[in-house]
From TrEMBL:
SUPFAM superfamilies: P-loop containing nucleoside triphosphate hydrolases. GO terms for molecular function: ATP binding. It is a peripheral membrane protein. It comes from Streptomyces physcomitrii. This is ATP-binding cassette domain-containing protein. Belongs to the ABC transporter superfamily. Drug exporter-1 (DrugE1) (TC 3.A.1.105) family. It is found in: Cell membrane. PROSITE patterns: ABC_TRANSPORTER_1, ABC_TRANSPORTER_2.
Length: 337
């Protein structure tokens, strides 16, 4: 049985750019899928196709069992969307923004008001609730936009980079909100550029690059493919790089040590965590190798990319997406018949 979100062979081109180049997805009900990828990978385009804001050139997708191209209005009634760029009405207060969403969804005025107050509190916007949104900081807008997506509790939610631009405290709090939502049975597709975020929230992760899913699995599976944890050592004296590498090789899985001459940095994939770190320090010390820094590092999106594609995620930035507003209104209309 197809999941709450299901896509097969989604293709979307913009001129020469194949923003989606045959994407397949399946998100079982009540689970979280993390769409992880660098700038320009196609994450927003995928979200926009699945939320009926863009019509795919080909392929097929259903959300809550409903075809997104054939029945966009029905799909819209089953979903909540928090876009990459906060969509709040600048001239309304935070409270009015939330009440308006409730009323759009046919909530009674009193219920919409109560829900708005509850969400302002939950997203730490109560003090600013009666100020117009144009006076809000970036992080406050982001939070207001997410609150707006939660006014009604739709069975399927889409969040496009929900925590980009939030400070660590607000990010952690949003993660808690998301986990509560999912515990309540919501199915969620979220996009992110951070492996850590996908790791924390998602049951399954799809890594996208150039409009294609290049890997899928749980965070642990992806990290294992990347070599899991690694020990990084910066030796004090460049002359010690070779002997340091020899020592690290003995601790490494398979022994591949990466040496960066200019930063005097040695890196090796390991298993065994902090205990191993202490052993490495002892061994380096015993051989008289002075170090400037040592640490245990978990793989980043960059490491995942490097190992999957042979290139770093940063190289993609030249393809950076333009503002969403660039879309021709025609595209939106096509789907709302
Ligand atoms: N409306 C558009 N017109 C032209 N090209 C577009 C449009 N929307 C997206 N693209 C292109 O499609 C590709 C995928 O863009 P998309 O916005 O889906 O990437 P993304 O993964 O969301 O990136 P980011 O992390 O920067 O948000 C990019 O090369 C982008 O320039
Ligand atoms: Mg995007």
């Amino acid at each position: 049985m197809p999941g709450a979100i299901h896509a097969e062979g989604l293709v979307k081109t913009f001129g020469d750019v194949r923003a989606l180049d045959g994407v397949d997805l399946d998100v079982p009900e009540g689970t979280v899928l993390g769409l992880l990828g660098p700038n320009g990978a196609g994450k927003t385009t995928a979200v926009r196709c699945l939320t009926t804001l863009l019509r795919p050139d080909s392929g097929h997708a259903t959300v809550a069992g409903i075809d997104v191209v054939k029945h966009p209005n029905q799909v819209r009634r089953s979903i909540g969307l928090s876009g990459q760029f906060a969509a709040v009405d600048e001239y309304l207060t935070g409270r009015e923004n939330l009440q308006m969403v409730g009323e759009l969804y046919q909530m009674k005025a009193k219920a919409a008001k109560a829900r708005a107050a509850e969400l302002l509190e939950r997203f730490h916007l109560a003090d600013a609730g009666d100020r117009t949104a144009k006076t809000y900081s970036g992080g406050m807008r982001r939070r207001l936009d997410l609150a707006a997506a939660l006014v009604v509790s739709p069975p399927v939610m889409f969040m496009d980079e929900p925590t980009t631009g939030l400070d660590p405290r607000n990010r952690q709090e949003l993660w808690d909100v998301i986990q509560e939502l999912v515990a309540g049975g919501t199915t969620l597709l979220l996009t992110t550029q951070y492996l850590e975020e996908a790791d924390h929230l998602a049951h399954d992760i799809c890594v996208v690059d150039h409009g294609r899913v290049i890997a899928r699995g749980t965070a642990d599976e992806l990290k294992a493919r990347t070599g899991g944890e690694r020990v990084e050592v910066v030796v004090h004296d460049r002359a010690h790089l070779a002997s340091g590498a020899e020592i690290l090789a003995a601790f490494g899985k398979g022994g591949q040590v990466t040496t960066e001459q200019h930063t005097r940095r040695l890196t090796v994939p390991v298993t065994g965590g902090a205990k191993l770190l202490a052993e490495v320090i002892r061994e380096l010390d015993a051989r008289g190798i002075e170090i400037d820094d040592i640490g245990l590092r978990r793989p980043t999106l960059d490491d995942v990319f490097l190992s999957l594609t042979g290139h770093r995620a940063e190289e993609e930035k030249k393809d950076e997406a333009g503002p969403e507003a660039e879309d021709s209104p025609k595209d939106t209309k096509e789907t709302s018949k």
